[in-house]
Amino acid sequence: MKLIQVNEDLYNYLVRVTVKDHPALAALREETAAMPSGGMQIAAEQGQFMQLLVHLLQATRYLEVGCFTGYSSLVMAMALPEDGRVTTCDVSKEWTDVARRHWQSAGVADKITLKLGPAVDSLRRLLAEGSAESFDIAFIDADKDNYPNYYDLCFDLVRPGGLILIDNTLWGGQVVDPSVSDPDTEGIRAVNQRAFEDDRVDSCLLPLSDGLHICHKRR
Fold first, then answer.
1. What's the CA angle centered on 170, arms 165 and 172, to 5 degrees?
2. CA distances (Å), origin 53, targets 48, 76, 79, 129
3. Predicted pLDDT at 51
């Protein structure tokens, strides 16, 4: 084993010396954590890592597949420059109403455009409207069975030199359990393999939270 085993004390230390929190982010995390589906929210340290990628790429346009209650959108909107823009896709008005409220409270609502409806349709519409290769970073964190479709569409929407980030790609360890063959798990296996075999990208699967597969679109 090349990975250190992270117990609760070590995890708390990691967060303490890594996460420079903001009250708006803490408030959204707290509200979402109390919801039945709160576990779908990304961790604070993952959000900060994604903000670091914004700064490294000097990104101005961020695309998101799967908004939920808006934490990752909020994280990235806060990291983007004043003229930066977030486009996020989701099917749930209930969840995204929570997101809208927190975006407004944090003062970044004017940076964020929400596409409400099936994400495949929204992404195809963006391509039809001329947004090919116009995003610096795309983050995929929605229905897992559609991950391969999202990957293909986001590849066309991200500029050369940009990043595609795919969340939950270790899937609680189920990706290596041969007895698990549900559509979500198979979708994650498929997208991991596709990214690995795609010679148009350089990829790395990090054991961050539930797994974050990072794909750099070659120039």
1. 130
2. 9, 10, 9, 27
3. 98
Which run of H or of E encompasses 113?
A: strand 112-116
**Mean pLDDT of all residues belonging to the chain:** 97
pLDDT band at 43 (very low <50, low <70, confident <90, very high): very high
Mapping DSSP to helix (H, G, I), strand (E, B) and coil, where does residue 178 land?
Answer: coil
Interval 108-112 mean pLDDT: 98
What angle, rounded to 10 degrees, do the helices at 183-197 and 147-157 form? 40
Cα distance from N-terminal residue to C-terminal residue, the chain = 34
The SS3 assignment for 202 reads: strand
Closest residue by Cα to residue 191 from 215, 174, 209: 215
- What sign does the dihedral 29-185-189-2 (CA atoms) show? positive
